[in-house]
């Protein structure tokens, strides 16, 4: 039987040693993390720079750590794998995301979507051979990103996948649970249920949370698509409210309404968005 080709990870001693590969792994299952750790540490040129149990930990760690390849679990409590990518894209920029290898138990439909988008995956349980193929592909992508002459680090396949996931997450319970807002060097992970209301601030959305304000680098339309419509209602092109935080609704004029929010703010709906407002409260 032919021996496994590990030349990408163990170059001949007569040649200059290759650059080390900085890897992070994120999985809420201890056994899965241990399995990934064991496989990764068998390669002498791989450095594990972060091991995270939750999506929150991953965002905090990867926002300040340079990583070439990220092994990312899809299904985790709190921030899932897609939430992590979305948050990191907002904080460090999509063009600075590492090469991604999803670790998942998704069905064949989801796996086909990953393949079409050219984003690799490991389907649990996986063997060493399948792991190695994913690592080789991820390393090749990371090398391409690192080339000085590369005109653009942004990965079109990853961008397409993120856009598709954002659309798909409008179905079922896959809406954002937390939103990543950066203030200087500080990262705030805001639980969506704690948001009172949201208004537009240029190309940003401003979250109002118990008297505090946080800026999220998304347009109102983008953010609306990630929020559960049973909890959040757009009442104006520049305003989204948490329906559970609205204390009163009063007629204003020409089909518009004044809404009082629990934090004391008063916002005015526009007639364009009033139809659904009436079905909820009037």
Write down the overall mean pLDDT.
Answer: 80
Low-confidence stretches: 1-16
| Class per helix and strand makeup | alpha/beta
Tally of helical segments:
8
State the major sheet: 5 strands, parallel
The CATH topology of the largest domain is Rossmann fold
Principal-axes shape call: elongated
Helical content band: 25-40%
Please describe the structure with a list of short key phrases separated by commas or semicolons.
single chain, 282 residues, alpha/beta, Rossmann fold, OB fold (Dihydrolipoamide Acetyltransferase, E2P), 2 domains, five-stranded antiparallel β-sheet, elongated, disordered N terminus
What does this structure look like?
With 282 residues, this protein is of the alpha/beta class. It folds into two domains: 21-168, Response regulator (Rossmann fold, 3-Layer(aba) Sandwich), CATH 3.40.50; 178-281, Beta Barrel (OB fold (Dihydrolipoamide Acetyltransferase, E2P)). The chain is 31% helix and 28% strand. It contains eight helices and 15 strands. It has a five-stranded parallel beta sheet, with helices on both faces. It has a five-stranded antiparallel beta sheet with strand order 10-9-8-12-11. Helix 4 links the parallel strand 4 (99-104) and strand 5. Residues 1-16 have low confidence and may be disordered.
């Amino acid at each position: 039987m032919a021996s496994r080709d590990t030349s990408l990870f163990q170059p001949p001693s007569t040649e200059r040693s290759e650059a080390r590969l900085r890897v992070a792994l994120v999985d809420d299952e201890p056994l899965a993390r241990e399995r990934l750790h064991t496989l990764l540490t068998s390669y002498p040129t791989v450095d594990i720079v972060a091991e995270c149990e939750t999506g929150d930990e991953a965002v905090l760690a990867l926002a300040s750590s340079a990583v070439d390849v990220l092994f990312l679990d899809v299904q985790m409590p709190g921030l899932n794998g897609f939430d992590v990518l979305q948050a990191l894209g907002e904080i460090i920029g999509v063009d600075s995301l590492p090469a991604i290898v999803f670790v998942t138990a998704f069905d064949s439909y989801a796996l086909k979507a990953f393949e079409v988008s050219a984003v690799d995956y490991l389907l649990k349980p996986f063997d060493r051979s399948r792991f190695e193929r994913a690592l080789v592909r991820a390393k090749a992508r990371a090398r391409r990103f690192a080339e000085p002459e590369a005109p653009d680090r942004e990965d079109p396949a990853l961008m397409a996948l993120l856009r598709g996931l954002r659309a798909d997450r409008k179905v079922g319970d896959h809406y954002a649970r937390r939103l990543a807002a950066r203030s200087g060097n500080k990262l705030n992970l805001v639980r969506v249920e704690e948001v009172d209301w949201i208004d537009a601030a240029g190309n940003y959305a401003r979250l109002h949370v118990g008297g505090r304000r946080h800026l999220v680098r998304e347009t109102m339309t983008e953010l609306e698509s990630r929020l559960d419509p049973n909890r959040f209602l757009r009442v104006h092109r520049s305003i989204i409210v948490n329906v559970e935080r609205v204390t009163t609704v009063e007629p204003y004029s020409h089909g518009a309404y004044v809404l009082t929010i629990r934090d004391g703010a008063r916002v005015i709906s526009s007639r364009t968005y009033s139809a659904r407002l009436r079905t909820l409260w009037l």
